[in-house]
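Lecture notes, continued. The same structure-token format from the folding unit now serves as the input rather than the output. Read the line below as a description of shape only.
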């Protein structure tokens, strides 16, 4: 296997690994808070579950970029492309927005979800407003996802 392919696959793997780590940490934080609320008021289960799950999207975004990158270089079926070292680094760099932003935003979205779960615990009727706080953090993960997709899909053109 050529060095360019190894570098590209490493970047694709990091998109899933780092965004996945961030999501796992964010969802875990939210889950701890959600469990506390449900132990006091089981009727709030659905609301706090939604808030807990929000940081999980970054891991999905990282996985999506990984699939796109691997399919671009032919690892997921089709003819494998032999990449130059520079092309490999281009794929690596293209995967980094969602890898890094996914990691950081999922952790912070988890913290914001915890705060929003606290709002729901005290005022269940404020769920809609509470949902907006972690959703704002999601915006930056979506921007990173778009940049990674645009970059990955245009390297070999």
């Amino acid at each position: 296997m050529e060095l360019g392919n190894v570098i590209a696959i490493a970047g694709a793997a990091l998109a899933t690994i780092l965004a996945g780590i961030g999501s796992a940490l964010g969802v875990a934080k939210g889950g701890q808070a959600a469990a506390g609320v449900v132990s006091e008021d089981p009727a709030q289960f659905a609301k706090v579950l939604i808030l807990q799950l929000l940081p999980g999207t970054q891991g999905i975004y990282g996985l999506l970029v990984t699939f796109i990158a691997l399919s671009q270089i032919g690892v997921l079926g089709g003819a494998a492309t032999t990449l130059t070292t520079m092309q490999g680094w281009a794929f690596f760099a293209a995967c980094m927005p969602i890898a890094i932003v996914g990691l950081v935003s999922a952790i912070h979205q988890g913290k914001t979800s915890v705060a929003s779960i606290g709002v729901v615990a005290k005022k269940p009727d404020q769920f809609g407003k509470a949902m907006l706080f972690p959703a704002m953090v999601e915006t930056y993960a979506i921007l990173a996802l778009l940049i990674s997709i645009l970059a990955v899909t245009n390297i070999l053109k």
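Point for the exam: Residues 3-40 form the longest helix (38 residues).
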